[in-house]
Queue: 2 jobs
Job 1
Amino acid sequence: MNTDTQYLHQVAESDYEHGWSTDIASDTIPKGLNEEVIRLISAKKQDPDWMLESRLRAFRHWKTLASDTDKYPRWAHLDYPEINFQDISYYSAPGSKPRYESLDEVDPELLQTFEALGIPLEEQKVLAGVAVDAVVDSVSVATTFKEELAKLGIIFCSFTEAIENHGDLVRKYMGSVVPHTDNFYAALNAAVFSDGSFCYIPPGVRCPMELSTYFRINQAGTGQFERTLIVAEEGSYVSYLEGCTAPRRDENQLHAAVVEIIAHKDAEVKYSTIQNWYPGNAEGKGGVFNFVTKRGICEGTGSKISWTQLETGSAITWKYPSVILKGDHSIGEFYSVAFTKGRQQADTGTKMLHLGRNTSSTIISKGISAGQSNNSYRGLVRINKRAENARNFAQCDSMLLGDRCGAHTFPYLEIHNPTAQVEHEATTSKVGEDQMFYCQQRGISEQDAIKLLVSGFCQEILTKLPMEFAVEARKLLAIELEGSVG
Amino acid sequence: MTPILEIRGLQASVEDMPILKGVDLSVNPGEVHAIMGPNGSGKSTLASILAGREDYEIDGGTVHYRGDDLLEMDVDERAREGVFLAFQYPVELPGVSMMNFLKQAVNSVREHRGQEPLGAAALLRLAKEKAALIELNPSLKQRSVNQGFSGGEKKRNEIFQLAMLEPAMAILDETDSGLDIDALRSVAHGVNQLRNPDRGFLIITHYQRLLNYIVPDFVHVMVDGQIVQSAGKELALELEKRGYDWVYDHISA
Ligand SMILES: Nc1ncnc2c1ncn2[C@@H]1O[C@H](COP(=O)(O)OP(=O)(O)O)[C@@H](O)[C@H]1O
Ligand SMILES: [Mg+2]
């Protein structure tokens, strides 16, 4: 049994303490976006004044972008209908989504996936949005967990709590890496975000556990405009996990999250994501539009930020976890596996911005496309004038399963310092007939051979994930591959 | 006694170009057959068709494996039934670890035979034992399948997999080519250890020298898609001495 499952059993078996009420279904505000709506969201969140001001500034900026159709970002290799931003409701309290009465009403395909992943029944219900009778008490476990972290001075809480209890830290760092002026969706998020996570690691502290796996259930309720802020003080270390392998039923069409990481001198932050949102049906109907801005800054000398992601979900993915290498000798890493099938489209990659001296970055991206999907890598490496002796290594490999899918690579290089050492490699391959034949000649079935070859292709990325996550990631990939070929 | 393999009048082509023009061959349990012949005569084609490669059109003839129609079976089904091909050019499988690959292969075959799957520890033990038999460098087991292996290591790895899967019918396609004499000896030694009364071997080779180490029961000469001569092991020596021209003369005579 993995720790997740253990945890969930523990949760399911623990005594009722806080529980929650499901009878808050009406707490959704009307569709549309204007200053009044922003004030309403702010009031519901019980924001302090500075937070309301910050939202309004972001909103006013967003309005200037939204009023000029030329300012909408269209550069990605993505094809989707125009989004009507007035046709969306921007606030919905957790738990107010439509609920099913029992698992019988849930999409059987979704249930099969849960089954294959070995997710316990009670958790399946939560993830699928079935009204839960058995009390799943995540709150008390979360509290014990928090107490343990608090002893070390680590703060790990919801963004809302952070605004309330750690306002100074939030004010200091929020928007410092991804300002609301950064892009269209960053502006939108800064105006309307409902909640998210906040994490602070004090100087010299090594966080003893992977943060956030324990919050799998809680996360199921977080809204479509999440915000995450991670601050690692001098000499600290944290490994942060986002998402889970279970596909989440989600009525929300548009997701626009923002993640900011600040790593001070000699600090290290490892951020791992498994993104498995609803990709839409085989014809490309429904599915999440996922527009995320993730960026970290290596603020101090010798700091390190590393992004590892497994992207298998969403109809549209627009995502470029990036690192600003400001401190001398700082290190940025981006390891990515993006798998698309059906009609999914992914445009994902990274930006490595070298400002400090002796900075180095590594990019390894693996794209796998099946069905009629499209999978693009887009990456920028910029070496600034004063970034002496910067190094970058980038490797982008694409694998095609079938001949109706597409793989594209868009590498951009901007080098303003002659001492830079930059290496770029790109390959595109098909799952070779010879490789398939070789596996099958040893008795391995066609499906298993494909899984074996694809997971071999991703191997070097999957090993970067924390152990527990890597095991789940492999399983997830195998499930996603099931029936996507042949 | 039912032969393990019985090929009758097999004809096959690629894009309307005939390659096999009526091949007859029977392999009984315990027998080792060698097929020799000049380059391009169709030896690898025969091996590929037996293993189930789909690039070829079967124009005529039959192949029976332990009494069943082999040509009706899928590639993986043939393998699970006990047909093994040691490839002339083994492919690399980047990122696919040897042990993971072996686990899937061995357990697919075991499941088919109604045996319990092997756990990680048992598999490792088995792999260790078989690797020693073949004199496979043990560190190769920690690598990706064939990736970065030398030519000799790739060939040895094929025989290692043969030992792991214990097939009823083993087909070796030019396992000797590209091997130095030491490697040749140890590969041959491995194959000899795997000879047993229930297993059939079909050893394809261009040169006679392998047959000094693996002594066949029968030698067949294939020329232009047909077996033109079959005899005992002495035929190999004759061929070595006189060259393939002798065979051509022999046919036209
Ligand atoms: N897949 C294929 N496509 C086209 N021609 C082929 C193919 N396989 C074999 N051939 C041709 O068939 C003939 C026999 O080849 P092969 O069986 O490899 O001979 P051998 O193994 O005896 O050297 C050669 O002329 C070769 O070019
Ligand atoms: Mg050949």
Note: The helical segments of chain B are 43-51, 75-81, 98-112, 120-134, 151-165, 181-194, 210-213, 234-252.
Job 2
Amino acid sequence: MTDLEEGSKVEAVDRVIIRFAGDSGDGMQLTGDRFTTASAVHGNDLATFPDYPAEIRAPAGSLAGVSAFQVQISDHDIMTPGDAPEVMVAMNPAALKSDLHLLIPGGTLIVNQDTFEERNLTKAGYDYNPLEEGEDLEGYRTISVPMTSLTKEACKDLGVKPRDAERSKNFFALGLVSWMYSRPTEPTFEWIDERFAGKEQIISANKAAFSAGHVYGESAELGDQRVVVKAAPLASGTYTNINGNTALSWGLIAASQLSDLPLFLGSYPITPASDILHELAKHKAFGVTTFQAEDEIAAVGAALGASYGGHLGITTTSGPGIALKSETMGLAISLELPLVVINIQRGGPSTGLPTKTEAADLLMAMYGRHGESPLPIVAAQTPSECFFAAIEACRIALTHRTPVMLLSDGYLANGSEPWLLPDVDGLEPINVEYATEFNHIREDGEADYWPYLRDEKLVRSMAIPGTPDLMHRIGGIEKEDGSGNISYDPANHSRMVEIRAERIKRIDVPDVEVVGDPDAEVLIVGWGSTWGSITSALGRVRSSGHKVAHVHLTHLNPFPKNLGDVLKGRNHILVPEMNTGQLSLMLRAEYLVDAKPISKVAGQPFTAGELEQTILNYVEEKSTT
Amino acid sequence: MTDVMDSEAVPETSRADWQSDQEVRWCPGCGDYSILTALQLLLPDLGVRREKTVFISGIGCAARFPYYMNTYGMHSIHGRAPAIATGLALARPDLDIWVVGGDGDMLSIGGNHLIHALRRNTNMNILLFNNQIYGLTKGQFSPTSETGKVTKSSPVGLISEPFNPISVALGAEASFVARSHDMDRKHLQEIFTRAHAHPGASFVEVYQNCNVFNDGAFAEITKKDARDDMLINLIHGEPIQFGSERQFGIVQTANGVEIANVSEVGIESLLVHDETRSDPSTAFALSRLAKGPDEPTPVGVFRAAVREEYASAMSDQVMGVTEERGKGELKDLLHSLPTWEV
Ligand SMILES: Cc1ncc(C[n+]2csc(CCOP(=O)(O)OP(=O)(O)O)c2C)c(N)n1
Ligand code: SF4
Ligand SMILES: [Mg+2]
């Protein structure tokens, strides 16, 4: 920040959206991530959106291989990584071709000029060089920098192999953008030392490249491009920049501590859920056991086995894995055992869009099992809120002895935001009690143990193996309520179906809060990761003089008790969701209201702008008819 | 909580203590009865506690087993018992876990879980009741049914060749692999005792007669007067010999093993059975000796080798990391990425 005072022409802006785009091999995710951390430490509010291809290394230079990282940094509270970038770094022609249309008119474009040679141009589908000919770049402020050669030049006396030197060009870009946005250098240098410890050549190459980028900015050519985004006036406290999957993993560990039960994760790798397995595998010192199973069925089976043994059993996956786990979820419903099933949703059906976001598994969570098999559903709404959503899912599972589905998605999983760290001592403990004594008197007067005797919330008694005297058998065959013995009795089955539904309904979930203009005719109902886009969009709609109300659901089964009252009598209910109308279908069925979906199924989150436009159009049309 | 109790003497129990109050509902004459009886009679002698014993099963006639045991038990879903048992065993290494299922349950729908449970070698005793048929669903062929078999689902004869469960288990490098049959209680009990004592995943194939849908499938080798000539008892450290006069023996050949007349080859050239060989190839060759239960068939322990047990290795890792870094603190975890103050 001291650099600031030295610089002469520094323009202050309240927020900026920057997009780093390049080939998968160019290290754009790393670059974006570093810039984000430097901004976070600088005190900006921010939100990120990594947007990368499913292929690990699509052919170099191809359109399919373009990997991008978008970040919005701001001096005020923001909810999304922003709609259209104002600054774009394009490391090769393919990145320019695929992402240029996103840049706002008049936006700043920084390109690595060295890559604009015939082979790369052809791969990207250009039959000319857009830096020299054509009208592609008209209306943008283009800064063409020979990043590759400047990086090589900067590394030339370091004894670094030319290939390694070339690989550092993303640090050149980072240095340049860091200079433009007055980001401090030291944190990045410290990070380079740590990350590449033991690889002295790489450390010196990366630092040299970063400095060269910084110096390039300082040089006369870019003197007037420097911008500062002041720190945001966030609530005071300690912050960290966190993505959804990390927050979710930590929430699971927190739940394990709050319930005093060891955490057992059964999982099978799948994008975008694998990072939870990776994260939890690192935390064995918290008594965490991670089990990478042979498939998703074994993963959920092992988690259920661990739950049965009195541990906190969790399984993580994405849509295709949920399909495989559904029979075991049915078993858990029948056994009335705790289990947390986490679905990091992605574009479907089938393999669909593995690295892109979608929220189209709500109805699958709700109805996607055989028989009448209800289970509670919790959905996270921001990356950091994944922490609390995970605790809530575990709380319900453990205290109500039921499988719970926790829904997140690719956008939350990989997107990050600053998080005001909660006081861990303030988190509410999760009280789990297992039976240790007989709970029933037989006809002959002897005491015995009945596993399906229930409390007022209809939660059954649970004795874990190892408990003396309470030996009993449970199974997926219909059982008699109370004794738990096999029963094919018609009346008993009806009763059990009813109990299984009723005990989900009796779960306490917090009421929804209506925000915005509570009495507005138009109500927006959202769920999950659309919270940020909806909140930003409604801010704009309201500031243009229209009244709108918003409720956001984190509990989708059971619905909050007051939801019916909130919806009642409203003729204009709009439901933005990243599917073709799944929540609106549920609201229609449950409350007989005319809930209209606003759908997006493009593998991309809603932008605040498109939601704003759709809602404005609706509001205006409504008032003219 | 359990350590204190374990230091106390295990209370004496009788067969009745291991029987649940549930009515046994197999068809009269089913081989499953004799396996149940053998185990209920044996358990009092194994020095284990009922509350520490858990039976986990999938679906099928065999899989009804847990309901009849006065222990903890879970009758789960078709094929998945080894997976569920693995989670339980990892969470609760203090328990004695038995997995019971049929040939369809464990080799068809659950084949993947079986081979991985054996490969990982988590402590559990897996009992596969092989009746070479789907009993519960009333008589379709199973993955162990013989080629040509006529069943409801193969009215013109079964096309495919059967799995040999012992070969499958050895292929997965199971550390304990044995075979017994429902007609010989003593042998069953010997094998169950060995399986139980083995640290790691033990696999026991039990030839089991389904008298309703596949009656007599093993009669040629298991009926009393045939056993001497048709069952080859594998005894560790002894030359493999069988026959009413012990006139036959097993010799190793370039391609595996074969039956020879002891009088022709001499007793010293017979293969001496070694359960503990770390290479499963010889055990595998023995498992290939009989094409089906109508030829002389080895029974007993094919393999009992020492391999690292998965659950203890896993908890060693957890304890090792905890010792090295200290018990995890949630507050430190939340502060483990770069933080800043506002
Ligand atoms: C997912 C699923 N598919 C099919 C079935 C039907 N089913 C129940 S048991 C069984 C096969 C039983 O054969 P086996 O495992 O050999 O046991 P046995 O009855 O012979 O003891 C089948 C196909 C089921 N219960 N669940
Ligand atoms: S169908 Fe066969 S295996 Fe099943 S209980 Fe009857 S006899 Fe036994
Ligand atoms: Mg069978």
Note: The pocket of magnesium ion (ligand 3) is lined by residues B 60, 102-104, 131, 133-135, 142 (CB under 6 Å).
